[in-house]
Amino acid sequence: MNAARTDAVLAQATALRYAWPGQPPLFDAFSFALPPGVSWLGGDEGAGKTTLLRLLAGELSPQAGTLQVHGTVFWVNPRADGCDALSPVQCFERVAQQHPALDRALLADLVAELDLTPHLAKRLDMLSTGSRRKVWLAAAFAAGATLTLLDQPFAALDKPSMRFITALLQEAATHPRRGWVVADYEAPTGVPLASAWTLGA
């Protein structure tokens, strides 16, 4: 993990430990401080990237140590989002209930830029993997959360959408009070990083 900016801390872990039943610990005495801006969480398959996001989101609890997150968190597990029977519009309304600061004007712009307009009335389980991911990316960037957790945000996206998400992350990198954690095999190209972690290294 590289040195993090110290102007603010959005989340902090001290001696964090977590292991799945019957498996060696993914984290043992793991400590970090998460600053504003964009942070990259790297590592091979099974290194614990999604597990750490779930810990930050409060879906899982540490088995030892402490983990504190300051402010609101946006997180959707793309593998188990529970919205298959809903349309994107219904999903956005659910997000708005959880995140009252959601910027609807920005959301409309994101929907247009990600070419989601033709799909707004369809059920999520009728959409391609890439379009489903775009729905949650639009919600993520519009939600206004203090901490936004993105699990492989570029997977299954077309090249124009990848460029657009990269531009959003480049803008996010300059934010003084909000943070984005990108969990992926490689760091997002061209995005200045506030901190970087490589799990299992």
Word description of this protein:
- The protein has 201 residues and is an alpha/beta fold.
- The protein is 29% helix and 23% strand.
- The chain has five helices and eight strands, in the order βββαββαααβαββ.
- The chain has helices at 49-57, 88-98, 104-113, 129-142, 159-172, and strands spanning 11-18, 27-34, 37-43, 64-69, 73-74, 147-151, 179-183, 195-199.
- The strands form two sheets. The protein has a five-stranded parallel beta sheet, sandwiched between helices.
- Strand 1 (11-18) and strand 2 form a beta hairpin.
- Helix 3 runs antiparallel to helix 4 (129-142).
- The longest helix has 14 residues, at 129-142.
- The radius of gyration is 17 Å and the shape is globular.
Itemize the secondary structure elements and their pairings.
Elements: E1 11-18, E2 27-34, E3 37-43, H1 49-57, E4 64-69, E5 73-74, H2 88-98, H3 104-113, H4 129-142, E6 147-151, H5 159-172, E7 179-183, E8 195-199
Parallel strand pairs: 3-7, 3-8, 5-6, 6-7
Antiparallel strand pairs: 1-2, 1-4
Helix pairs in contact: 3-4
